[in-house]
Structures are given as C-alpha cells and as structure tokens.
Amino acid sequence: MKRIAVLGANGQLGQTLNSLVDKEPDSYSFYSKEDVDITDKESISTLFNKNDFDFCVNCAAFTNVELAEKNVDQAFLVNAEGAKNIAEVCQSKNIKLVHISTDYVFDGKKREPYTTKDKTDPINQYGRSKLKGELYIKETIKEHYIIRTSWLYSLFGKNFLKTIVNKTKQNVELKITTEEQGTPTSCLDLSRFIIYLIKSHDIHYGIYHFSAKGKTTWYGFAKEIVKHFNSKKTANIFSVDSYKTIAKRPKYSVLDILETEKVYRNLNEWQESLKAMIEELKI
Ligand SMILES: NC(=O)C1=CN([C@@H]2O[C@H](COP(=O)(O)OP(=O)(O)OC[C@H]3O[C@@H](n4cnc5c(N)ncnc54)[C@H](OP(=O)(O)O)[C@@H]3O)[C@@H](O)[C@H]2O)C=CC1
Ligand SMILES: Cc1cn([C@H]2C[C@H](O)[C@@H](COP(=O)(O)OP(=O)(O)O[C@H]3O[C@@H](C)C(=O)[C@@H](O)[C@H]3O)O2)c(=O)[nH]c1=O
Q1: Where is the RmlD-like substrate binding domain (predicted)?
Q2: 34 sits in which H/E element
Q3: Structural domain contains residue 237
Q4: Which pTM value belongs to this model?
Q5: Is 104 a catalytic residue?
Q6: 176 domain residue, yes or no
Q7: pLDDT tens digits for 220-231?
C-alpha cells in the first residue's frame, strides 16, 4: 500500500480527488492550506517528518488568472516558490512528486496541439509563475510527474462550468468569447489519471499533457453546457470576438495528448465528460 499526501485539498481538484479515493487500496491523506501552507517550507517538513509518505500530489496553487496580474509576488510565491519548497522537501525525504501545471505556459501562437517538447513562453503572470514552478521541480527532484492540463471544471469551487450554470439559472445574458481555443477537462478524468499514475510502477517520470480529446472555444464550451438546460435559456448566450480581461490568454492552447495516450487509454471526448459531470449537477 502506498501512502499519499495531497496538498491544496480544498481546491476543486483536491476535492474531486478526495471524492474518488475511498475504495482505493492506497492510502490518501488530504491537507488544506490551513493544514499546510506551501509557501512555508517548515510546515511541509513538519508534515513529512511526522508521517511516512511515498507520494505527494500538489493541488495547491494561485489560480486566479486576473488577480495574478496585480498580485504578481503572491502568484510567484505560491506557484513558483511553493512548488520549489515541496520539491526540496520531497527530494530530501525520497517522496515522489505529482505536480499540476497548465496550458497557459504556452503563448498560443501555434495552430496545432502543443507537445511536451514545444517551447514554453507564457503571456500572463499566472503562466509565468506556473512555468517557474515547473523549472524548480525539474532541477530539484528527479522522481516527479508534472501534469499540464487545461480548462478544468468540476462540481466544486469556482470554475467556468459553475459560472455558466449559475448565470443561466439567473437568466443573466452572457457574452462569451470565441477568441481562444482549448480543451475543457473534467477534474474527475484528471483525478482518475493521477490515481492511475500513482498505482503504476513503470511510467517514466517527466512532463505529461492531460486533457480530454477535442477542442472548442469558451463560447463553444458555454453552448455545450446550456444544451443541457431547456431551450429558452440557451437564447441568453451570445458569442463575441473578444471579452475584455486584465490578463492576456493564449489564443490556442490545445495540448497534444498522444504521448499520454500511450500510457493511459481512458481519455474521453470533452463533450462526453462534460455530460457526465452535468448529470451529477442535476440542473
Ligand atoms: N482551474 C483550472 O482551470 C486549471 C488549473 N490548473 C492547475 O491545476 C491545479 C489545481 O487547480 P484547481 O483545483 O482548479 O485550483 P483551485 O484554485 O480550485 O485550488 C487551489 C487550492 O490551493 C490552495 N492554496 C492557495 N495557496 C496555497 C498555499 N500557499 N498553500 C496551500 N494551499 C494553497 C487554495 O486555497 P485558497 O482558495 O484558500 O487560497 C485552493 O484550495 C493547480 O496547480 C492549477 O494551477 C491547470 C490547468 C487549468
Ligand atoms: C465570465 C466570462 C468569461 N469570458 C472569457 C474570459 C476568458 O477569456 C475566458 C475564460 O475565463 P475564466 O476567467 O473563466 O478562465 P481562466 O481563468 O482564463 O481559465 C484558466 O484558468 C487557469 C487556472 C488555467 O490554468 C487555464 O487552463 C484556464 O482554465 O472566458 C467571457 O467571454 N465571458 C464571460 O462572461
């Protein structure tokens, strides 16, 4: 039996992972920011000195893309220095690290899916801070999995799915951009992949791209969500060429998942995974 510490447990990915591990033979322990603050290396050391873990899954991050433009130091403190702290403690205690990164490490200038070998060049502070976190991990600990994923949604916390569902229920008129292309990814699918990686013995360390199959725009994502409502409500969604935001977003951030599919075959089309999640939401 492996022992796994999950940090950032109160976020949407942390909570989704928690909802799946009950019947797993491995033993997962979940720690929120109140239990372990990843910007405080001592708090990570204390936890790892008290318990014997084989793996650490880092779900903790500063994920507010807009706020990261203003609170640059805080974004880097959590996403870069926090990741470095975890990597250093894991390395010193022989704990394997699973870390989550983002499609926003790319500039979005490509028009075909980004592979793990493609050049990174983030265009916003969130992406820069996450990339720095990746680099720290790579130089600190050999036994790591960095999973880059995109456009996460779940039943928990704040995400695009829940925003669209709530605004649609309130009959709010929505204008949604067609300017960016990417792949919505279910936290359930990603959690299952994380569990699988930890269970397996023979998957090479390194960077993996994980998303659902296919691609869309944020407008396409919103339209697919409201398809599951009655038809009158879908009339409230309009496409716009661009939506004013503080942070720049990559115009194209589809991830190439072919390498991941060689080790994990259970990838779904994004619409299929979304349907399964919406059934859970019972709208
Ligand atoms: N959301 C998305 O669309 C995507 C996310 N990712 C990555 O996936 C991972 C999981 O994201 P997601 O679950 O959506 O994020 P959330 O924002 O839902 O969760 C992040 C969690 O980290 C916690 N946290 C923040 N700062 C610290 C800290 N100093 N110490 C410990 N915990 C902290 C937050 O607590 P609090 O809220 O109290 O600050 C929150 O509970 C992240 O690495 C993110 O960068 C990648 C691609 C897409
Ligand atoms: C609310 C809203 C957003 N938008 C646009 C703004 C933006 O371009 C796009 C998505 O907005 P959001 O702020 O929900 O998403 P954003 O914070 O950009 O989502 C990103 O989060 C980080 C954590 C990641 O790692 C990325 O993979 C990605 O999921 O939709 C509209 O066009 N209309 C709207 O009503």
Answers
A1: 3-282
A2: none
A3: no
A4: 0.98
A5: no
A6: no
A7: 999 999 998 766
